[in-house]
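Researcher: Going back to the complex we discussed earlier. I've cleaned up the inputs and rechecked each line, so this should be the final set. Can you rerun the prediction on the complete assembly and write out the structure?
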Amino acid sequence: MPTAEPTKPLENVRNSLLQVIPEAELRDRDYRECGYHLEVRLVMRGMRRVAREMKDRRFFLETITAVDFLEYFHLIYLFSTYNEASFRVMARVKLLPEVRPFSVWDIYSEAIWLEREVYDFFGIRFQVHPNLKRIINPDDANYFPLLKSFGKTKFTTDIDDILC
Amino acid sequence: MNITQLPYLKDIYAFLGSDVTAGIVGLLIIAAIVPLNVAFLVLVERKVAGHIQLRPGPMEVGPHGILQTLIDAVKLLGKEMVTPQSTDKLIFFLAPIIVVAPAFVGFVPIPFSPMMQIKDVNVGILLIFAFSSISVISILMAGWSSNNKYSLIGAVRSVAQNVAYEIPLLLATMSILIMTNTFKMGEIVQAQSSVWFIFYQPIAAIIFFIATTAETNRAPFDLVEAESELVSGFHTEYTGMRFSLFFLAEYTNMVIAAAMFTVLFLGGWHGPLFPGMIWFLIKTYFLIFVVMWARWTYPRIRFDQLMNFAWKVLIPFSLVNLLITAIVLKVL
Amino acid sequence: MNTPSSAFTEYLTEILTGSKSLVVGLWITLKRLFTRIVTVQYPRQKLTMTPQFRGHIEAIRFDDTKTHHCVACGLCARICPSHVIKLQGEKVRAGALKYGHHYYIDFSKCSLCGLCVDFCPEQTLKFSNEYELVFYSRWDTVIDIMDRLEKSR
Amino acid sequence: MLNPKTIDDTSIDQRVYTLNLGPQHPSTHGVMHLLVTLDGEVVLKVEPVIGYSHRGHEKMAENRTYEQFLPNPARMDYLSGMIFNHGYCMAVEKLCGIEVPRRAEYIRVITSELNRIASHFIGAMDYAMGLGAITPFLWGWDDREHILDLLEGITGSRLTYSYGRFGGVRNDITKEFYDGTRRFIDRLRGRFWDYENLINQNIIFIKRSKDVGVITKDVALDYGVTGPTLRGSGVNYDVRKMEPYSAYPEFNFDIPTREEGDCLARYQVRMAEMEQSLNIIEQALDHLPPGPIRAKVPRLVTPPKGDCYCAFESARGAVGFYIASDGSRIPYRIKVRAPSFSNLFVLTEICPGHFLADVIAIFGSIDVTVPEIDR
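Model: Rerun complete. Updated structure for the full complex:
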């Protein structure tokens, strides 16, 4: 059974990412268990440098999403590639609620709408975004539906509860 | 005492035999038959569409749904005629009237058989062309007065399309006219008693057919009401009987176009066995069937391609055709 | 390739191939015009439902007890994603299992996922083959399937 | 194609107008709203407005167990419900480490591919209808009907199947399904000639589609385009090949690609993919292994703490389920990467300069489903 296990490209990406953002914490992940190969952990900033590096390496931005942990967010960027040696890189940015992350819309045009969606559901306001307004919820909505504080949902406060 | 010798009765007879009477009676007959004919054609269209698309079409009202369009007409008559607030009320009101009137007049010079003709006007062909051009104005009026962007786009398209396609239409007709030297439709048919003109003028016939399809806004040239882009085109805002008047005009124009094609190219009433009237109707309805068949086969053409087709293909070909016809006629 | 003559040939070829494609298209639709229609004239003709068809749920009558086996455990009500199941049962005698008396399902909100059928420990639920479900009121869509079972007797 | 940048800026304010295509419009596939800025019939700007059919699936997921979320994925992309269901089950199985029996994997592949054909029928024929050819659309429905009948025979439902279960599938396939699928494959292979000649060779169709809405590779990368829309631009990216999942590595199939990147290429890719799907189904039916159809899985799955991303290929592109679990029976967060969402916004890049009629064509050729975008 052919596996989607990367060999050389993973090393290259890891090395160049380490050069670009030395403060990042890089972790190899088991693809079969969690579906991505490399996890880049960042705190508050650095997503633009990651995005720039991934764009240069011809990765496409699969999605941007967030997970609410009440005291902070995880802003998640997923990059994948069209090439034969397909593998997936996840950039996970820890974000305090009041912090405004930088938009990557000028690197990936798709991010304009993905970031609008993240804003729409989590209230994360991106800086220098050209058109940061509601996209799916009503324009006059005063709530952010995917926050754990909205509606009746359970929440986890433990930091490593979800991340093994 | 012979009643016919009464002096005033003579006048009455003269009056009854005159053109005026023939015109009035003919128009009354037209006014009675045309809506029924349209109802029939709509049914045929729906049946053709249905069977091409592997479904039976209307089946509920009457056996095989033959009363469906009559019921639809009754329904449309009973509907409220909504005039949206921001329309230009007068023009909005006038447009459906103006679209129907010329369609009716178009029947006047058409020879259904040697006897069945209201008036063999000596400019018969020109009369039909002249009146059919009026429908463009009414479409523009409808589109403009509706104060709806879709309607306006449809109306503007309609004008450009009609202007472009009248030229090859007239040029193709011209090829016939220089062969017959007459505008009278009856005489054109007489001239085809031995050989139909479609065999002399196949290219002109094709051009005429395409151009009339475009003139009557039928698919694949139905950009005016292209429902996948313009919702319903120029009659988006029309409801009830006003809407059905546009419908009536569309189908009546189709009948006139097919009848003209029959007169010009298919030898009118000529044909073996059956009386002339039957032959004329067979030919006309067959052409209408072809138009419907094409509608359910082809995608819609795009606006710039429509214009390119008229100016780059149809007009050059019809010009060349006319030239060749003129030269051949001169040489022979 | 850009000489006038070749451009003219191209122009003519395009017209010819185009016309041919149009004629072929007409031929294909003409063939279909005379093939059999495939639609079913619904109120007069009806299709037979497959045995797997998922209508609303129904209680199965078993031969041994001549009735259903519902013990009113409420597992189906808890697993239902739309919370449309309400059921009631009581113990016939002390120490025995409960017996389901009423089993209401609001069919208008059911998403037909089949989880209740899967989760039923007594396997006394199945899908009905009924598809002509028309009601005058929203409240009519609340069906008591035990009642239906009684009536179907 | 006209270049909107050449239009004189001074007069433009008086000439441009906006047109609301939708949310109620015959060819916007549901409640999609395109705000089009036009100069005459030339498009200057397109802005998709979405959210009309938002139902909050992602929030719903945080309120119910993994099983209870099973009916939801099919309702996101209603045209490829089976594939979404398959993908969601795969994601949870990945999270829990459940091993699926081979027979179940084969059945999932067969049903998913049948569903893909059905979806491509809608996609391709709806594009033809956007161009005004209504007849092929209804013929496509006729062929699709056979697929729905087949799937109804084993799943009991026609659109939102809810057929997959964690660790397998609900029902085993029947003899009727097996024979019916064989017959359907033969029948459909015979029908491609008609579609090819009625639509693909038609001069009007070609004129309407060729060089319309060209998506280059760079634009595709920029917008994260996937699926047939991407493969029409000459990139042979298909999750089924790139990250083989389920039983796909055991089958022999090609990824059809076209280099042109226009509407015609996307249409051709869809039609070619249908043939490839038939190949996959045929191979799967030939080598259908015996055995159980469902692994031994507890009634309510309880995944360990952790997260996983599971990518799979729906009829519209690469879908991904990102599931974060806190070790309970209820997911902490489920994020769906919807391919239509990414594909849709390419419109803003490629539409300007085309005619109004082309917007409909491009929109149809990208083949989005609105509920998937809004979720």
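Model: Worth noting: Confidence is low (pLDDT under 50) at residues 1-6, 156-164 of chain A.
Researcher: Good, that matches what I expected from the previous run.
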